[in-house]
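Can't paste images in this forum, so I'm doing it all in text. The chain is below; anyone willing to post the predicted structure tokens underneath?
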Amino acid sequence: MKKKQWQFILAGTGGQGLILAGAVLAKAAISEAKKVIQTSSYGAQSRGGFSQAEVIISDGEIYFMKCDKPNFILALSQAAYDKYKDNVTSECIILYDHDTVISNKRMNDKGYSFNQRAIELGNSKVINSVALGAILKLCPILENESVIRKLKEELPEKVVPLNLEAFEVGYREVTP
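Text version of the structure:
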């Protein structure tokens, strides 16, 4: 039986918490005894510049440390969407913020109001937790409880309740 591998790219602008979201995904996968590689990069200016995290999660060995054939891209900015839209297979899911991104309407493009929903929850900084919920809804590679446990461990205690609510909103509202 062939082992399944998922390659995730979470891309947007600095300040959206994508590096943290990638780390949470990676640590949740490790807690489920999966093989993981996680990398991140961001522009010289931390807020407002391009930012991305790459996470590879596999049941088997990982032989290449970059996302060369992503299965899933989260694009929270037009620059992020434009960077990847023409360089992925038609099977790759691109989940984008439809309030800030104009999609090419690829077969597997899915839009959602990430930033607007985070603002409605009371803090735009929970956009990454909304995204994590949405990612798990579309790619059930990990158990929700694993990600929730890692969110609780990685975040300051005072912001955990709102981030857990944001995670649940993303999971509940994004449709496959």
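The helical segments are 18-31, 78-84, 114-121, 127-138, 144-154, 160-173. The chain has six helices and six strands.
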